[in-house]
UniProtKB/TrEMBL annotation:
Residues 159-179 are annotated as: Disordered. It comes from Phytophthora nicotianae P1976. This is SWIM-type domain-containing protein.
């Protein structure tokens, strides 16, 4: 009964009144990460490899950002139409901030400092260019080489020196078996 009351309280609590941990560095919102995935899928966010070669700095990646298509949402009621129009206008303004004053060679994203010179990043601390650049280089080290990760199942050494596979033993049956 107590857990049901806690679940009901969590559902009824407003999002702005929930406690959030204080972060020392700005983090990308999940909506921004989803937007990066959508822009990459539509090929509106690209890396400029030529500008990276000319610059020669491994800590800077040049990212092209093209404006996305505008989607018009029609509302069913009069009051919701106004709310939709206001939120759509805010999204258009934020999308404009991502590509406004973009250099010809793309945004120079500084990977070590996690900075992008676009207006959106200046306002919110993270932008689609920065998230894209960090995701593109998360498998690379500082010298630009690929980081190889071993995905093998770990083996445990017993006290006898015999190596065994980790996890649940294969000889054990289902958890609720009687025999």
């Amino acid at each position: 009964m107590g857990t049901l009351l806690e679940e009901l309280r969590d559902c009824c609590m407003h999002e702005s009144s929930r406690q959030r941990p204080f972060c020392m560095e700005p983090e990308a919102a999940p909506t921004l990460t989803r937007r990066v995935v959508e822009l990459v899928r539509e090929k509106l966010l690209l890396r400029n490899i030529e500008a990276d070669r000319i610059a020669g700095d491994k800590g800077v990646m040049h990212v092209f950002g093209y404006p996305a298509k505008r989607i018009v949402v029609e509302g069913a009621k009069r009051s919701t139409e106004e709310e939709i129009a206001v939120s759509a206008r805010m999204d258009v303004n934020y999308a404009r901030m991502e590509v406004q004053d973009e250099p010809l060679y793309g945004w120079p994203v500084k990977l070590r400092q996690k900075l992008c010179p676009c207006n959106y990043c200046f306002k919110f601390g993270a932008c689609v260019h920065l998230v894209y650049a960090l995701r593109a280089t998360d498998r690379m080290d500082g010298a630009g080489r690929r980081i190889l990760v071993s995905r093998r199942i770990g083996r445990k050494r017993s006290e006898d020196g015999i190596t065994t596979l980790g996890g649940r033993p294969r000889a054990i049956g289902p958890a609720l078996s009687v025999d």
